[in-house]
Write a structure and sequence with these properties.
mainly beta; Neuraminidase; four-stranded antiparallel beta sheet; binds D-gluconic acid; binds zinc ion; gluconolactonase activity; SGL; metal-binding; Regucalcin; zinc
Length: about 325
């Protein structure tokens, strides 16, 4: 096995999140939540594009960006507590800011300051995305205000989990029978039985407990799964990603990163053997930031000797989507 290498590939952003690999363009998508920016980094050419999503408010947030299957210039994003469609040309390098083409859903009306956080598509291409209250500092917020939603190809939205504090990592087992989920403030990785046909989930249980494993300081954040069914988790405050075997609830490996606040992970590269990692500057004092040039950086970890699976794009009824965009 070759040696594990950690390389910073993109300079620091404020609150990196939502990495997603695009195989046919060999590029990594991710967001900078608090700046309402989406990023696109081309691995071979090192070209780096940033697009600002303009909601009309200077304080809006974007927490996810997922390609829409069959429409190379259209992406699903969140905008505060809404889900939106944006157009991002693959050919126009001078596009720096856009307004959303359509708002698909707005949730949590009873918690107006809530926002979407982590989101990902299940093996069928339905979007799962969760919400959270407004943080005053990392991990500091009114608890149990968030929910996890599932949006299907016909844009029907279902609330699948309530009373979430910080909606984070999502992953589906290779046999499509288990859904793994992280509420960061529950300090655990949980599992549900998952029905791939109906998207119903039930029988929640904890498969890995952070506090019981001596990780009381770390907050579990984003997560992905590898080809052997093990989970790779970003540890906020923990300066590392770790690999957990959910079948036995044990840590298999830890990989240290050069900065403290690790937010999310995804597999990418031509053969899905690179683990991309996002991080955050949030919560670091000016002093801490000055001595931590890697804070908020995006990293590529190679040499792990294991691979991931291709991510799923949002598979939506394109006629319905076009009606939404036209209206
Ligand atoms: O990256 C995210 O998921 C959140 O948006 C962040 O705010 C952190 O996770 C949180 O502060 C600590 O868990
Ligand atoms: Zn996260």
């Amino acid at each position: 096995m070759s040696a594990v290498q950690v390389k910073q590939v993109v300079e620091g952003v404020h609150l990196g999140e939502g990495p997603h690999w695009v195989q046919d363009q060999q590029c990594l998508l991710f967001v900078d939540i608090t700046k309402s920016n989406v990023h696109r980094y081309f691995l071979q050419t090192k070209r780096h594009q940033v697009l600002h999503i303009d909601s009309g408010s200077s304080e809006s947030t974007v927490s996810l960006i997922i390609p829409i299957e069959g429409e190379p210039d259209l992406f699903l994003t969140s905008l505060d507590r809404s889900l939106a469609v944006v157009k991002w040309s693959t050919t126009d390098p001078d596009q720096h800011t856009v307004k959303p083409k359509a708002i698909l859903h707005t949730v949590d009306d009873h918690y107006p300051t809530n926002r979407f956080n982590d989101g990902k598509c299940d093996p069928q291409g339905r979007l799962w995305a969760g919400t959270m209250g407004k943080e005053t500092a990392p991990g500091q917020l009114d608890m149990y205000q968030g929910s996890l939603f599932c949006i299907d190809a016909d844009l029907n939205i279902t609330n699948r989990v309530n009373k979430i504090s910080i909606a984070n990592g999502l992953a589906w087992s290779l046999d499509r029978k288990t859904f793994y989920y992280i509420d960061s403030l529950a300090h655990s990785i949980d599992a549900f039985d998952y029905d791939d046909a109906t998207s119903k989930i039930e029988n929640r249980r904890t498969v890995f407990d952070y506090k019981a494993s001596g990780l009381a300081k770390d907050l579990p954040d984003g997560m992905c799964i590898d080809e052997t069914g093990n989970l790779w988790v970003a540890n906020f405050f923990g300066k590392k990603v770790m690999c957990v075997d959910p079948k036995v609830g044990k840590i298999i490996r830890k990989v240290e990163l050069p900065t403290q606040n690790i937010t999310s992970v995804c597999w990418g590269g031509a053969d899905y053997s690179t683990l991309f990692v996002t991080s955050a500057q949030t919560g670091l004092s000016a002093e801490a930031l000055a001595s931590d040039p890697a804070a908020g950086g995006t990293f590529a970890i190679t040499g792990l000797g294991v691979r991931g699976l291709p991510p799923t794009n949002f598979k939506v009824n394109l006629n319905l989507l076009k009606e939404k965009i036209a209206s």
